[in-house]
Write a structure and sequence with these properties.
alpha+beta, 4-stranded mixed beta sheet, 309 residues, elongated, 4-stranded antiparallel beta sheet, 10 helices
Amino acid sequence: MKRSISLIVALLCCGSLLMSCSDPAAGNESTTGKDEASTNQTTGPENETDPAASITLDTNTADIPIGGYVDPAVTVSADGTDQKLLWATDNAAVAVVDDSGRIIGKGEGQCVITACLESDPKVAASITVNVTNPTSADGLTYINGILIVNKTYALPSTYSPDVDSEANTALAKMFQAAKADGISLTIVSGYRSYERQNTLYNNYVARDGVEAADTYSARAGHSEHQTGLAFDLNSLEESFGETKEGIWLREHCWEYGFIIRYPKGKEDITGYMYEPWHVRYLGKSTAKSVFESGLCLEEYLNVTSVYAQ
């Protein structure tokens, strides 16, 4: 009988310990009043929202194309509070947002992007994002009136315009001006068909692998040469940029409606290595604006250049 009573007492004690671990309140009941007061002073403020804390975005709505992005300006007021922000989307199929707050369009539709304080998620602000498809029925993508072709935006395989006549005329004028300055410019490569680009790219992949090839050659349908608006001049070597011809081209091509399409220092944005020989025709007004901005075309148009796969 004594053994049975001892066993029952032991079981009751074990049950009491388990309740204390699973229920913090049960454990607190066994502490002294002084301990309870100390715990409340420490945890109480953590559960309260700082009335002075706020997040303000510079806009409540944003309209971007698929593949485009927006960087909303954020103002945080939170005295004595960690101001790190957490960003979230309510529909990643429409738009995503990175840790810096850059919002990137992924698919047609509308979604809400929210920013909140990591230290106090109840302090938040949101922006409604409308994402549209900029690609027309014929498969061409124009952003702000500019035909854009890169890793994000492709051309249909059936698109074969040959060399653009306006671009070709501008190129001839640029060659004449260069010659007058003692500079000799020649075409290494101009218009390329979808099929030709496919052959070139696959040859590079066979030689160097996909990862390397993607840094210097476009996949079929993603090459600017297929537009008839792009030209490679003189030499396909980075050192060309430091020759007198390369320097002249960089400093003067915008005067004739061209830009250096893949400038140095923008490799992570354009998706391609520095190509001082590759010029793209935009027209005089737009080329001048891009040149003076100091931006590459992706930055100028607020678009990405990333393959879907």
